[in-house]
Amino acid sequence: SDSNPPANISWFKGGTFVGSGRIYSISKIRSDHSGEYKCKSRNEYGEKDSET
């Protein structure tokens, strides 16, 4: 997400933190990687959640 000031971005799978940054990628994907992923962007003005 583009924001000013820049946002801190966190990724979650089923409520568990799995990574940070603008891009979250999975190498050697397996069936246990399936599930609901959410991205949370946050800066001093607020936060936004997005499902992928």
Give structural notes.
The protein is mostly beta strands and 52 residues long. It has one domain (8-51). Helices cover 0% and strands 46% of the residues. The chain contains no helices and 4 strands. The protein has strands spanning 8-13, 16-20, 37-43, 46-51. The protein has a 4-stranded antiparallel sheet, with no helix packed on it. The protein is elongated and about 35 Å long. The mean pLDDT is 93.
The shape, in one word, is elongated
In terms of DSSP E residues, the strand content is over 45%
Strand count, sense and barrel status of the largest sheet are: 4 strands, antiparallel
Count of beta strands: 4
Give the helix/strand layout.
Elements: E1 8-13, E2 16-20, E3 37-43, E4 46-51
Antiparallel strand pairs: 1-2, 1-3, 3-4
What's a quick, concise take on this entry?
InterPro entries: Ig-like_dom, Ig-like_dom_sf, Ig-like_fold. The protein is mainly beta and 52 residues long.
Tags for this model:
Ig-like_dom_sf; elongated; Ig-like_fold; mainly beta; Ig-like_dom; Ig-like domain-containing protein
